[in-house]
Write a structure and sequence with these properties.
Chain lengths: ~325, ~300
Amino acid sequence: MAQPEMASAGSLQPSMRQKWLSIGVLLVLVLVPLYAWLANDVYVLTYFGRLLIFALAAVGLNLILGFGGMASLGHAMYFGLGAYAVGVLSTLGLANGWLHLLVAIAVAGAVAIPVGWIALRTHGMAFIMITLAFAQLFFYLFVSLREFGGDEGLSLAQLSDFGALTGNKFAIYLSVLVCLVGVLWFCRRLVGSRFGLVLRASRFNETRLNALGTASRPYRLTAYVISAQICAVAGFFMANLTGFVSPSLMSWLVSAELMVMVLLGGMGTVFGPVVGAIGLLLIEDGLKMVTVHWPLILGPLIVLAVIVLRQGLWGLLAPNQMTHKTTQSKRGQ
Amino acid sequence: MTLNLILGQALNGLQFGILLFLMAAGLTLVFGIMSFVNLAHGSLYMFGAYLAATIATHSGSFVLAILSSLVLVFLLGWILDKVGLSILHRRSHLDQVLATFGLVLFSNELVRIIWGNAPIYMDAPSYLSDAVNLFGLNYPAYRFAIIVAGLLVAVGLYFLIERTKIGMLIRAGASNRNMVSALGVNIAWLNRFVFALGAGLAGLAGALVGPIVSVEAGMGEPVLILTLVVMVIGGIGSIRGAFYGALVVGVVDTMGRVFLPIWLRETFDPAMATAVGPALASMLVYLLMAIVLAFRPEGLFPVRARG
């Protein structure tokens, strides 16, 4: 009943159409700052910066959800931890930007190792519930920490200090974009490597993988930690973009949204989550313009997307001819 | 720290645990028989509370409000399963989680449109608004009534599952649905009944808490997440586990919030205790879950492997 979706097989060799489309999307994203500079419109950078940050987080989640079949409903926790690394350190008077980034990554790793170790002892439904519960733990932790704003959140006393570039929206936007492209490249290499092979195999049949003499858990845990750290970097950027951190960043609604982004984009494709994240946020903002009761429409749309869009938007935009065949032969072997 | 305070908080914990059990019982039954997970279970709880508050205000009868919200949410569950959710039964848990997440967004907004943004309140009936005397301890009568009602439901549920024909079919369906279906039982009908029963119990839980919490949009999610913790601690799919898990979580959460800050203040620096106490208290249940899982990944009362 809980069979993993069999859609990832063709993803490692993206079709020409997918290649060109992803280059096109990235090109548009590169042109955004140019437009902002010419039109003297900084708001557009904040807006698209937010889309990119969520895309980055969704790419991170996809590493374990799409390729490892680990449905974590708690990744907003790492997003929030990355943001709070900036918030807490700058409240304590430590402004160095590289320190903020380093601490964000280190803390996410330090939390992800024990949480992943416990959560990965379970499968399927239990994994979803446990990751959700751990995210709730940190959500309530930051809600009750009054020194750092409590449930009302914290306006940053000082953004991460990068010298003359501190708080420059152009610099932030371009760093997120560079980071996103770098992470996409990294994920592509990782998924195609021997490491990625074990990860993908563990999604289909972990017992068989273990029987073949490969202990899958260290691989899964490593992927989980890397994915958490990517989300923490996204959170680090989010704090700097908005100058504000609050526990709502790690609310379970954000975790669920990240999952919807991955699913909407297309599970198990490297670039899909970027499309999913941008798509979901644009739909959301579009609906907000139409009505204040936008969740009334967004909710059923999500239900519909889950039921109908088996391959996600990315699969719809750029159907991969190979996917079906490869999947079939893979199952037959 | 008087004995009365400890006893009173223990009863509060028991009362909270009983409510969590009403929630967890429904989710567990549904998960057991159709391996379906429903995040919108919290929304059903919310609908129960709103319906009870509305009916109580308009009819003036508290008992009518509780019973009718139980029945109405039972019917709502029946319709939900009939209209759409049954499509999701055969999909992956991930799909089920995300689709029902969409339902959560929809329900919260629907409630805001119908009942407005402001929380609404519901009064306990006058005959339950005083305190009862339990061995010298004055305890709010309404909370005591919740404990009694919840325990009665738990006993009724036990009787239904262990002693009736339909309970036998539910147990059989949980261990091998294909076999039950092959023996001529209408498994789709059975699924629908179980789903609606779970919905009704969530509605009942919502209706019962109406007078002691503020009834508002989004009230279901914190309870839903604690219910999931209950299921994880008890062992997913095990009714017995859900019962003990709910009591443990209810008591630990309630007692922790009251006594952990007090204990910290006595043991450590008061300033630090004030800062850390509430944070630690709200994390306690989740830490408990982590410890249980570190030693028993299957939960305290794991379900035996099924075919």
